[in-house]
Structures are given as C-alpha cells and as structure tokens.
Design a protein that fits this description.
The structure is a homodimer.
Chain A: H1 5-15, H2 22-34, H3 36-53, E1 55-56, E2 63-64, H4 70-73, E3 81-85, H5 88-97, E4 103-106, H6 124-133, E5 138-141, H7 147-158, E6 164-167, H8 183-191
Parallel strand pairs in A: 3-4, 3-5, 5-6
Antiparallel strand pairs in A: 1-2
Chain lengths: 196, 196
C-alpha cells in the first residue's frame, strides 16, 4: 500500500506527541483529512512557520520568534523582578494569570542527582550574570513543590547573596476542599496561616 | 506579543484536534518546538503532503492518495465479499486484524432520525450500484452494535434481496471477563452459544 505511506507516516509522527497514542493519532489524522481546508493545511503552514522561526531567547530562555523575546525586550517589564521557572510551560501559566509584571528566567529543568542534572546543565550561570548586569531587586522562585524543585530553589538562593529571594506561597488552592488535600499541603497552609 | 502569534495560532489549531484540549495542545507544541528537526518539520511536511494528496476512493469511500484506493484496485481483494463499515477508522481496524480478504464499502456514518441522516446522505446508493456491477457474493455488515448501527444494517439488508447478507457476531470479547460485561452482551452471547 505505497499510496497510503504518507498517511501512515503522518499517523506515526502524530503518535509521538505527548498525550496522543496510536489510536488517538489515527482519530486525529482522520479528523484532519476530513477538515483539510479548515485545519490540516493551516496546521501544516503554522508548523512550518514555527519550525523555521521559533527560537530560545538568548537572555531568559523563553520561546519566541526573535533572539530576544518580547518580555525581555519590553521596557515596561523591567521592574527589577525576575521570576525563575523550570520550563516555558510554567512561564506561559504565569503569563495567563496576568498578575506578574516583571521578567522571567527559564532554567530548562531542575537539579537532579538521579538524572545527573547539574547547575551547568541548567540556565543558572546565565541567571547569575543577569543579576550582575540587570537592575534586579527581587528574584521570585516559582519552582515546583517537588524535592528537585525545592533543591534547585535552595541552590539558587545560596548563590544570590544580597538579593531579595522569595518563593511562591504554599497552601490551599483556590476552590480546594480540605478533605481532598494531602497532609503536606495542609501542614504548609497551617504553618503559613495569616490574620484575617 | 505579535512575535508569538504563530506559536499561539499553532496551539489554537492543535487544540481543535480530537483528544487534545488547550492544555495538552500547549504541551504538544512545546514538545514540537524542542524536537524541531525530528518531529515538527517532518510533521509539517507530512501534513502538507497528505493535505494536498489524500482523497476518498470513488468506489468505496476509503481514504488514500489515488482516486481508486489500493484495496479496490487490487485483483487479490476481488473475492466477491464486501464489508460495509461506518467510517474509515473501522476499515483500518478491520485491516489491522488482517483476517478479511475482500473489499470494503465505507458508508460515512449511520442512518439517524435524531440527526436527520437519511440514506441519500450516506454511500448507500453507491453500494447498491456496486452490487449490480461487481461480482458480489456476500455483503458483511460490520456496523456498530448501537441502535443507529443496527437500524442501518436492517435498512441495507432489506434493499439487497438475493444477496447473502451477514453481520459480525456479538458475544464475549477475547480476554473479556463475564463479571465486567453488560447484560445485553451476555444475553447475545448466550443466545448465539455454540457446541464445543
């Protein structure tokens, strides 16, 4: 069936995406073929454009189509705050909340003894450079509440003497019910309780 | 952020695929950008090729890159059996089992009073034409065991006098445990019991 080779290749490639397996890749490809004009060809074009133009910001590691991303390039965002995140997905999550007005620094992962990820494998030296050259007043560590995330947070905090280093609060998520929360979260929320 | 417009457009388009929502589309796009050479650009090319070449077989409704699909075109598959399926995904599922050696007919859906799908909306007239012109000995109805699927099966069977019309057996799936089966399947399996 050499004439269906392209379709089979497309299914194989789609099945490599996170969240899709062989079955959902087949469903997605059939959907794409049925919606050729509205979805398939625009998607192919968008992928081609992103594939040729997307790059990591030389300053912070964010992804955009320029060497310096719009956030690093914006005067408005230069308020002296740098929010340190693990991954671009975390940066996007922060941006969706719309509440942070400073700049970011994307580490590209966390320190991990198990996976042999050291400081030189992450964008940590570049962070220390930025603090020396940009007018930074506060470093906000927005790393995951995991062992590796917290190890990374402490490692970074130790290397930034003389700078205010903060981290995101831990506690009950908005809309969360106590009954469904784990013990660690309840303990953290109780310890960080505030006067009403 | 006009420079991230292409990336946002790509996320929007990916989120329209079945099985992906906004969150998994963002994850998939970040994965694609990281694996630009191995996945993103090959995927864009494969989509473009499929988008410009994929078409429905004029005879059976299968999808390939030719006007007549490889199965309809193959002499070997002309054994007089036509397997009627709802959708190309069902044809692919039959082909994966590798057990059917005849040709197919893809209806493109099922009759449905609720969704106002009548016989002229499906590929039923073309099926009746094929039976008149091809040397058909048996029509195998491989339609879903749903109300609409069974209605469609009976409608087709009524319009094919003088032809052997069969349908897939209903019963316990291979590897299935009785405890987890619904009453309807157990009833069908008991009624169609066979001597060992």
């Amino acid at each position: 069936m050499s004439d269906t080779r392209d379709i089979e290749l497309l299914i194989d490639l789609m099945a490599r995406l996170p969240g899709l397996g062989p079955r959902s890749a087949r469903r997605a490809v059939l959907h794409l073929i049925k919606k050729r004009g509205q979805v398939l060809l625009p998607l192919a074009d968008a992928m081609h454009r992103v594939g040729t133009s997307a790059r990591e910001c030389l300053n912070c590691g964010n992804i955009s189509t320029r060497d310096i991303c719009p956030i690093c390039d914006s005067e408005k965002r230069g308020n002296g705050q740098i929010c340190v995140v693990e991954d671009v997905a975390d940066l996007w999550a922060m941006e969706r909340s719309g509440v942070f007005q400073g700049r970011y620094h994307v580490l590209g992962g966390t320190l991990s003894a198990l996976d042999a990820v050291g400081p030189e494998d992450l964008r940590i030296p570049r962070l220390i450079d930025r603090i020396a050259t940009e007018n930074v007043t506060e470093v906000i560590l927005a790393l995951g509440a995991t062992v590796d995330g917290q190890t990374t947070a402490h490692y970074i905090a130790d290397r930034l003497p003389g700078i205010t280093v903060t981290s995101l609060a831990q506690g009950v998520p908005v809309g969360g019910e106590l009954d469904y929360l784990d013990d660690g979260t309840i303990t953290a929320a109780l310890r960080a309780r505030r006067a009403l």
